[in-house]
């Protein structure tokens, strides 16, 4: 509220501008209403371009569906020819090729279980888990994890 009283001139100017705009809109609507009541039609040149003109619709729209085609029109389409055996063989070969690709993709890319299976199949042993703190800190990746964990869970730097 203090801002309004401190800047009363700005508020007054905005209110006057808004009131002037509302008044001009009302006057325009009133003039349009009076023109309609007097029977004046707007000039077609104002609404349409020089080449355009308004044409009433030839036939009104109805909510009825289009007529059903006759029986002879339905039978005029040619019957589908049977698929040759050569095409069926080609489709079966493509289907088999797609199956082989999917199997290869499942083997080469997969979830963690598939990755563990591939590692075990290659003979790699799983990374040994160190049971003591000293053994964990000798491993470079474990040391890195310990430092990050301390930074995250420790006291904030601003409070040290």
Description:
With 160 residues, the chain is an all-alpha fold. The protein has a domain of 28 residues. The protein is built from eight helices and no strands. The radius of gyration is 42 Å and the shape is flat. The two termini are 44 Å apart.
List the helices and strands and how they pair.
Elements: H1 2-6, H2 8-38, H3 44-47, H4 71-74, H5 85-108, H6 112-122, H7 133-138, H8 140-153
Task: Give the key terms.
160 residues; mainly alpha
Outline of the structure:
With 160 residues, this protein is mainly α. The protein contains eight helices and no strands.
Which residues sit in consecutive blocks of at least 5 with pLDDT less than 50?
A: none
> Structural class of the helices, strands and pairings?
mainly alpha
Number of helical regions: 8
| Gross morphology | flat
Number of strands: 0
User: What are the secondary-structure elements, in order, as H or E?
Assistant: HHHHHHHH
Helicity, as a percent range: 55-70%
Mean pLDDT: 78
How large is the share of residues in beta strands?
A: under 5%
Largest sheet entry? none
C-alpha termini separation = 44 Å
Rg: 42 Å
């Amino acid at each position: 509220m203090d801002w309004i009283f401190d800047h009363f001139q700005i508020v007054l100017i905005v209110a006057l501008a808004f009131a002037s705009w509302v008044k001009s809109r009302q006057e325009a609507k009133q003039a349009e209403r009076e023109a309609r009541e007097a029977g004046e039609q707007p000039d077609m040149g104002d609404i349409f371009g020089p080449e355009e003109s308004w044409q009433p619709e030839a036939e009104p729209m109805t909510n009825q569906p289009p007529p059903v085609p006759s029986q002879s029109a339905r039978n005029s389409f040619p019957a589908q020819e049977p698929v040759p055996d050569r095409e069926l063989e080609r489709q079966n070969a493509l289907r088999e090729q797609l199956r082989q690709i999917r199997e290869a993709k499942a083997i080469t890319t997969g979830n963690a279980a598939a990755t563990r299976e591939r590692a075990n199949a290659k003979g790699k042993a799983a990374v040994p888990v160190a049971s003591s703190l000293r053994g964990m800190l000798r491993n470079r990746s474990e040391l890195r994890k310990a430092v990050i964990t301390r930074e995250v869970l420790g006291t904030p730097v601003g409070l040290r």
